[in-house]
Structure formats: C-alpha cells, structure tokens
Amino acid sequence: MKRIALYHLETLLVIARLGTFHAAAERLGTTQPAISARIREMESQLSIAIFRREGRRMVLTARGRQLVQDCEPLWAQFESVLMRPGEFGGAVGVVRVGSGEIAAASILSGFTAEVESSMPGVTLEVEIDLTAKMLQQLLAGTSDMVFLAGPVAAPGLRTAPVGDVPLAWLAGAKGRARLANGAAPRVWSLPQNSPLHTITRDSLQVRGITAAGFATCNNVRSLIDIVVAGEGVAVLPLTMVGTELARGALQEVWQRPDRRIRFEVAIRSNEPDPVIRELFERASRFVMPPVS
Closest by alpha carbon to 243, among 255, 258, 228, 257? Predict the structure, then answer.
C-alpha cells in the first residue's frame, strides 16, 4: 500500500504555489534539503517523477501537475474540516501580506492589530511595494493577500473595497512663497502608474494650471519630505501628513481634488487556504478610520 503523509501533500502544494523548494522551505519552517527529501519520498512511494530539472530550476512533470490538481481540493477540504467556522481564534500559520505605502499608513496598522488580538497564532509578514509588483507576487503565489489602490480588474483575483483616503494640495513654506510671488508651481507626484499621479494631473487640468515642472518620486514618505523642504506642491494623502499639518510644515494651498484614492484587498480567486480566506473576509469588513 502506498503511504503518503499529510506533510508530503502540504509540501507539494506549497512548492506548486511558491515556485521553488527554497521558498517552500521558508514557508514551512524547515530546510531545502528536508523539502527535497520529502519529494523524493513521495516519488518513491508513488513510483512517478513529480519534478524534473530544467537548467537550475525544478519544474512539475505532467504527472506532477495532475497530482497537484487532484490534491488541492482535497487539502482545502481537509483544512476546512479542521478549521470550522468561528474557530479561527486558534488558527496558526504565516501569511504574507503586500501593501502600498498609503494603504499601509491608512489601513494596515488597524487591521494587523485586530488580527493580533483575535488570531494570535497567525503571523503576518508584511512587504511594502508598488501596486504592479504586488499584483505579480499575488498571482505568482509569493504573496497571499494584498492591499492596493483600486479599482483592480485582473483575471484570477477576488477583490473587495476597504475604504478611501482624502487628498489635499499641500506645500511647504518655500512652495507657498513661490505661489504668493505669482510663479508657476513645481508639481511633485508618484510615477505614472500610480492613481495619485492621475488624480494630480486631472486636478491641474480642471483648474487650468500650467506647472513649471512635473517631477516624480516612487516613495510617498520621501515625496512628503521633498515638498516640506522645497518649492514644490503636491497632492498628498491626508492620512500620512497629520504631523506636518499640525506643526505647520505643510499647508493646503488649493481646493482639494474631487477624487479620493480608493483601496481594495485582494486574494487569488481559487485560494484554497481557509485562514487566508478568513483574513480576506475580515479585511473586507474592516472600517477605515475617518479623516477630515
């Protein structure tokens, strides 16, 4: 009789999701040689080759892909049996969460605090990055759940809105002096693939303002510091500039843009892990604190 342990199946499915033995070893808290040994045991028991080497990579064989496809729903059902509805307080595991800077400042701190309180056995590994890269990592399986600026329309994803962030045109002392002298503004924003960039451009067009220059920075915190210290103006999220506004380092210079940045939480539409699905449901019900 062929004998396959549960940890064999878990190892196989984690490798299929994350793509490498090394990543699977990190996720499962073991070593790469131990992962390789588990796969050899499976191949010996089943008398099939599950992986083959292509250059420096190990890829699933046709039989291996079929095995993954057959085992995924069985594993999901098994986990669902062990994790009955309402019993997630005892859940354990590591969940990799991606977030943009603005979402991290606006949503993530409150959400992680709620998870730490209600699901103490779940560890969140948070990575801050740009939306495009987060989507790639989510679809590739190296991230489990992401918070990003929306709306997001991508095949294979399940999304839910989690709130929005108000924006304001802000400038430091030098920037306000430049405007008071009648000089054309120097505008700063995030790169073109950011919703903030689009909102900034649209707001300038609505007001009929011609900028003296349009510069970009791919880090929101650095962007805020640039505007505080320099002669530029920028549309900035109010959730990230409370300290600067309170001490007068930044002040509003024009009417606020009509649009806000809206955020969504996303997981893979076929996500089999009940803990990740539960975190998604909790995130979708999470209420962002209001910002005036």
Answer: 228
